[in-house]
Amino acid sequence: MQISLIDFGVLVLYLVTITLFGARFRRGQQNLRDYFLGGRTAPWWALACSIVATETSTLTIIGTPAIAYGGNLGFLQLVLGYLVARVILCVVLIPQYFQGEFYTAYQLLEKRFGTRMRSVAAVVFMGTRALAEGVRISAIGKVVSVAFATGDRVSILIITVLTMFYTFEGGMRAVIWTDVVQFFLYLTGSVAAFFLLLHKIPGGWPEVVQVAAASGGKLRVFDFAFSLTQSFTFWSGLIGGTFLTMASHGTDQTMVQRLLAARNERDSKKALLVSGVIILVQFTLFLVIGVMLFVYMRNGGLVVPGGDADRIYPAFIVHEMPVGLAGIVLASIFAIAMSNASGSLNSLASSSMMDMGARRAETAAQSLGASRRMTLVWGVVLGLLALVPWGPVLVAGLTIASITYGALLGVFLLGTWNARANENGALLGFAAGLVAMIAVNRFTPLAWTWYVVAGTILTFLVGTIASEVAPGRSKVAGGLPD
Fold first, then answer.
1. What is the pLDDT of residues 175-191, one digit of tens each?
2. How much of the chain exceeds pLDDT 90, in percent?
3. How far apart are CA 152 and CA 175, in angstroms?
4. N or C end: fewer C-beta atoms under 10 angstroms in the chain?
5. Domains parsed from the chain with CATH numbers
6. What are the backbone angles phi and psi of residue 42, rounded to the nearest 5°?
7. Alpha carbon distance 470, 75 (integer Å)
8. What residues have CB less than 8 Å from 145, skipping those under 6 apart?
9. How far apart are the first and last CA of the chain?
10. pLDDT at residue number 220
């Protein structure tokens, strides 16, 4: 074990406390509305923190500094799209989600197209979310292996079991309120890391600016070159980031479930918009930490473990932070990993129960029991997927999601903007978009930031054409209700 006993004690205390805190929310649960939507009692600010905690992930905490360490601040161009998308979603999709008692995003597709479209979209969501969450849990394995000098499998087991326990017990209320605690913890830890790095670099911030400028412009944000093969440019960030976030926050059940858990439509919109401001601030913080780590290492302050850039930040925490503070920051990284895993477990269980034709028991208590068992099943699946070697974790996680998000967003927009679209056309468009993006990923140099744009446009166009020639009917004439 490479960390001190005090840091180890801080970490263990956190893990025990947050697990017990989450489990206590079992009290008062009576039905699926309580388990999957938290009874729609959470205030908007708590949902905003939960959205940010879910969007952030361990991939962000260790992967974003790694991107800036090897490049510059260009990732912020993608965050601009994150902000634009939130405004569009508040106008286009959120109002639709509050015109009925929805538990999942895909119930909206059933209302517009039918049960087949709902089931197919849910299957794709579950596959995408399971793979992406496997990458996220795998990322925490890198942190633990640096801190404890143990294999990744041990850390994956610890995270999976503890998160399964409190999610199994506490449901969506546990997910939201542990997210709030974990959000403030990881943000505090990141700010502490920033100031400690600044203190350790001789010359402070002026030295950071000077070395960064002399090393290829590492503080540069904007690149206005138009390229379909370069991931981080202004255009791929603004356009690709907008489409990516419209898909992730508007069609992915993990995020939509938080929007559905709001007390009303106004609170849902407020939570989404405020989360965008927080995201911009914290991505800036993580990227600047990456640049500062680069400067610190140039001064001989740290050695990259095994040449893996994803391990740089964890190595700084373990080897350079004061006793006690290192434990708190490690706990914050564990916090965000558990936050992501718990949200994914609950959303996967909800989609399995509500979208896949799983027959719910006759009584509320039996339905609740079946939902908890489904949570355990998905916990095992995520733990197994986390054992797969994924490579650079942040890009791997975003790429997996981007391949399927285009088809999902395309079919939602098809139902919203094309009154003549029918279920057969939507299914054909969805299939075409999904197959095409898998082929694009395997056989073309197109940057992943353009995947959702391409997939959305293709799905919408094929769905529109197929609806004109394929027999079928539209369940809701005129598209989704305004």
1. 888 888 888 888 888 89
2. 21
3. 25
4. C
5. 5-353+366-391 (1.20.1730.10)
6. -75, 135
7. 42
8. 151, 152, 155
9. 58
10. 87
